[in-house]
Amino acid sequence: MTLNPIAVEDIVRRALLEDIGPGDITTEATVPADKLCTAVIIAKEEGILCGQSVAQMVFRVMDPSLTYEVLVAEGAKVTPGMEVARITGSARSVLTAERVALNFLQRMSGIASVTRRLADAIKYYHARLVETRKTTPGLRILEKYAVRVGGAMNHRYGLHDAILIKDNHIAVAGGVRAAVIAARKVASHTSRVEVEVDTLEQLQEALDAGADIILLDNMDTETMRRAVEITAGKAVLEASGGITAANLEDVARTGVDIISLGALTHSVKALDLSLDIVL
Fold this sequence. Notes:
alpha/beta; Aldehyde Oxidoreductase, domain 3; TIM Barrel; six-stranded parallel sheet; four-stranded antiparallel sheet; 44% helix
């Protein structure tokens, strides 16, 4: 997954507008308009760096005359004290854009760091790790990109690009079979139909109805193993719900194809980074 610069610029402009409003009154009061500076972004803890192009965009939108030098490649490991970027130009512009740039860089690096750790934990298993739609409103494209940088895969981007029949759809439609058949009637020949199930009985119903992907919701690992045996490769199996770093490897051992984890995006800790004026 790559970042569409048009979409990124729109996000960046809205973030800057939110933070600056009619003006940065502190910087304008204390920093001469003609003052130049050099600043560095420094890692304060170990992790995976992500979001360099977004941080660079923040400074470019703030002031096209600023230069942003990438010192650490996207997706690389950083350690405390490592300089990851250098910015030179107007001191006012650097200080005004500082927090927005760091917010993006810290958030995306936090996601990439957690993802890398969890993806590495199951890298020798068949299962692939993906995130969910539990993302920060307005930042989904950035957070899903960070998941990829961290070494996992992406689930559907939104409601528009994949059919995923959840428990509430099933309740309204009148059952797993009815929901899958209804979805099949409107799905194109290139679309696959995924349905969520809570029990092995529902799993069998989904298989009989011809579901392409079956989401095993909040099942224990023994039930997942039985689901893998029953399915026997007739559908892709996704495990979701109740999965944590502590039981991730146990879930991977069951033989499921996909493990989706909302925690990759909805509750990660930002990676600690700071910006310091050095000249």
